Target: Putative solute:sodium symporter small subunit
Amino acid sequence: MVTRIHAVTPASGAPPALPPVVLPKPDPRRLLLQAVLLLLWVLAAFGVGFFARHLQTIEVFGWPLGYWLASQGVVLVFLAIVLVYAVVMRYIDRHPLPAAAAPPSVREQPPHG
Model:
């Protein structure tokens, strides 16, 4: 036996209207930080491979620089990116933009009366 479940709708048959969702405007500091760290990530991930032949000519402690960057340097860059992101985002969260820079939907509305 199949049981059908029907949604409760108003008499007009239309589904009830949901209130509009107002999203706050993104903080430009967050977007800038993400763009800069993403660029650094791209340079670290693809730059080492792209310049591998040139990096092999430079030696550090008897080993080619390409070896150092491929084995440990890029991993350390990735960890530094995560650390910088966490520290800066904590600062941004603790020091929000002033109310004048926030979108109107987030600002406090004066009491009606």
